[in-house]
Amino acid sequence: MSDAPVEAFEPPYYAVVFTTVRTQEQSGYRDTNARMEELVKDVPGYLGMDHAQNPGGLGITVAYFSDAEALTRWRTNAEHQAAQRRGRAEWYDSYTIHIAKVERSHTFKRA
């Protein structure tokens, strides 16, 4: 994952904000997370992802999709659904998902 934010896209598009607090038990999480990051790249309409985590354990991942159909393709992917089930069973104390349609977007870069 890059240290730079994902570039702005021409709206409209969708942002999925996945905010998590993880459990102490993280066996297999890193490998599964890496697999999900690779798998989502193959979804037509996937635009990119930003992620941050604080030392206290709060994590925020924002994934961007060109349209609702792309988001549905990702949400209904069988391997992704299996990872979701394992996440609820083992890796997350809590999570929240927000889905938003982006109507404005811009990027700033210092020269």
TrEMBL record:
InterPro entries: ABM_dom (IPR007138), Dimeric_a/b-barrel (IPR011008), Jasmonate_Hydroxylase-like (IPR052936). Its EC number is 1.14.-.-. It is an enzyme of class 1 (oxidoreductase). GO terms for molecular function: monooxygenase activity. Gene3D superfamilies: 3.30.70.100. Keywords: Monooxygenase, Oxidoreductase. Transmembrane segments: none annotated. The keyword Oxidoreductase applies. Residues 12-86 form the ABM domain. This is Antibiotic biosynthesis monooxygenase.
